[in-house]
Specification:
The protein is of the alpha/beta class. It has 3 domains: about 140 residues, Response regulator (Rossmann fold, 3-Layer(aba) Sandwich), CATH 3.40.50.2300; about 140 residues, 2-Layer Sandwich (Alpha-Beta Plaits); about 240 residues, Alpha-Beta Barrel (TIM Barrel), CATH 3.20.20. It has 22 helices and 20 strands. α2 runs parallel beside α3 and α8 packs across α9. The longest helix has 25 residues. The termini are far apart.
Length: about 575
């Protein structure tokens, strides 16, 4: 490829060069020398130079800049250019006979010099060509190493630079931090993606402005999560104050945008970089339901929890093979009739560990959702529940539908419909007997894809229950568009309603929403007759909770089926 061909962009247009010099003869001399290879534009002084730089900023490959000019000197042009990120990356070669100004020009962003009087044209072309090539290569690298929205490093390059930093600062204590925006999906839902993107850019800018001068490195990890690697000893609350103060200035809404910070202090440098930030995330996760604390430090209790979690993950396969997992069933009762009657059940997993005994689902369900094992566990529950429905149907002659959880991870499986239909067909039950529970929070993340999946499942005859209604921060507009058959009110709302002087206002609002959507309501966590009667009076359709029964093994659950059969026979 000859030198002239190399001066064309990928779109076939020649690269553009701006020549800035107040001497006409100098402009023409350079222009005539370069016009065969480049599109040349000219400026007579510094003011015109800045105008042309802004005008052609998207296509300008290089500026050849004289230093001594009227109106605005080359030094002043470099200063103004450096201060504006819109044009700061356009390379500048300084044209000067004053060697004393070279250091100042380099500090202001100049990348090379061509002395006056000009050297041979081949030398000038070689320097110009090389400068443009290096800048374009740097731009390509920048697009691969940077997050396009915030301009921060992406995760892979971030880890690489952190490791490089450690190599040159072996004995410097470092902190790994993870910052995220509390309920960011709600911000997107309420105020739109554009505003959400603006918040992300503001957080990124504030973190970078605070951390970079202190020898720290920042990246955008994913969505609303940022990673920070910096020398130990920073004031964590001061970081948050700096970031949030910047958000308050730019936030046109009345809602407060909260940032949470998880810190793994004085990291173990023998640990791989990714694992250090896993510990920062573990600390941040402890703030998930906290409104009072914004900073959490990784400590020994979290270390012990990590060890326990790693053991559970390692033993998962063996536990499935050995039958340590067992499906329990909690009855759901229709209270619209004169007397409550069994309507269905919910399948709930239990882990009977040989060493730890009965492990709470709260200890392993979120863990398995994070690492993907939840899909295997859910499949086990689905198959167990379908077999149990078929067995009860055969033995008792009546159908007891069972609801099973479908996690957010499951919803992203392209084979979900096929898997569920296959389970139903293999056990000779109908799709209406295997009820699907999907949490409200699952709908609020990538809602379009989730909604499409739910629509497909409902077309196959599956009934879909929105679980934990009221905790996922959906907007009313969003809920009205969701394809659902049942709303399940979260236990927290039942507790709040009856623990605060029987204030059922929030429950009534939820029931009104269900009435508007024309779907029945299930109330979870009902523990007393008073609660049951109040919910019935308010118009609730179905309840489940300890008032009727805690979750029990399949054999014990059969007494509820027997009671229903007796009532039907009578």
């Amino acid at each position: 490829m000859d030198s002239k061909t190399e001066q064309y962009t990928a779109l076939g247009k020649r690269r553009k060069v701006l020549i800035v010099d107040d001497e006409l003869i100098n402009r023409e001399l350079l222009g005539n020398a370069l016009t065969d290879d480049y599109d040349i534009i000219y400026a007579n002084d510094g003011e015109e130079a800045l105008q042309k730089i802004y005008e052609y900023r998207s296509t300008l490959s290089l500026v050849l800049l004289d230093i001594l000019m009227p109106k605005l000197s080359g030094i002043e042009v470099l200063k103004k250019k450096k201060e504006d990120p819109v044009i700061a990356s356009i390379p500048v070669i300084v044209l000067t006979a004053d060697q004393q100004s070279e250091v100042e020009c380099l500090n202001l962003g100049a990348v090379d010099f061509i002395p006056k009087p000009y050297p041979q044209i081949t030398i000038m072309k070689a320097r110009i060509n090389r400068t443009i090539e290096l800048n374009e290569d740097r731009a390509i690298i920048n697009t691969t190493e940077r997050d396009p929205l915030t301009g921060l490093y992406n995760k892979n390059f971030f880890y690489s630079y952190c490791n490089q930093f450690d190599q040159y600062n072996i004995n410097l204590p470092m902190d790994a931090m993870l910052a995220d925006i509390h309920h960011f999906h709600v911000i997107n839902e309420r105020y739109g993606i554009a505003f959400g993107d603006k918040v992300l850019r503001l957080v990124a800018d504030r973190l970078r402005d605070y951390v970079t001068p202190r020898n720290g490195i920042v990246c955008r990890n994913e969505s609303d999560t940022f990673l920070i690697y910096c020398p130990h000893g920073m004031d964590y609350n001061e970081i948050l104050d700096y970031v949030t103060s910047g958000l308050e200035e730019e936030n046109p809404t009345n809602s407060q945008i909260r940032i949470r910070l998880g810190v793994y202090p004085n990291v173990d440098k023998l640990m791989v970089m990714e694992r250090r930030f896993d510990r920062a995330k573990a600390a941040a996760d402890t703030l998930r339901n906290s409104l009072s604390n914004a900073v959490a430090i990784y400590d020994d209790s979290l270390y012990q929890k990590d060890l326990f979690n790693e053991q559970l993950i390692a033993e998962f396969g063996k536990a499935l093979e050995e039958g340590q997992f067992e499906v329990y069933y909690q009855p759901k009762y229709d209270i619209t009739k004169e007397e409550p009657i069994l309507s269905s059940a919910e399948a709930l997993i239990r882990w009977k560990h040989p060493s730890y005994g009965l492990i709470s689902p709260a200890s392993f369900i979120p863990l398995f959702e994070t690492n993907g094992l939840i899909y295997e566990l859910d499949n086990f529950v689905w198959k167990s529940a379908a077999r149990q429905i078929a067995e009860w149907k055969k033995r008792f002659g009546i159908s007891v539908p069972v609801s099973v959880n479908v996690s957010r991870v499951d919803m992203h499986d392209p084979n979900l419909e096929r898997v569920l239909c296959s389970i139903v067909e293999d056990n000779h039950i109908s799709t209406k007997e295997l009820l699907l529970e999907i949490t409200e929070s699952a709908y609020t993340r990538n809602s379009a894809q989730i909604i499409d999946t739910v629509k497909t499942l409902r077309e196959k005859g599956f009934k879909v229950e929105m679980d934990d209604f009221g905790t996922g921060y959906s907007s009313l507009n969003m809920i009205s568009k969701l394809p659902i058959d049942v709303l399940k009110v979260a236990k927290e709302f039942i507790d709040d309603a009856f623990e605060s002087g029987r204030d059922t206002g929030m429950l009534e609002i939820m029931l009104d929403i269900a009435d508007y959507l024309k779907v029945p309501v299930i109330a979870e966590g009902v523990e007393t007759r008073e609660q049951m009667l109040t919910l019935k009076e308010l118009g609730c359709d179905v309840i489940q909770g300890y008032y009727f029964s805690k979750p029990v093994p399949a054999l014990e659950f059969e007494k509820f089926i027997s009671e229903k059969k007796s009532e039907l026979d009578a």
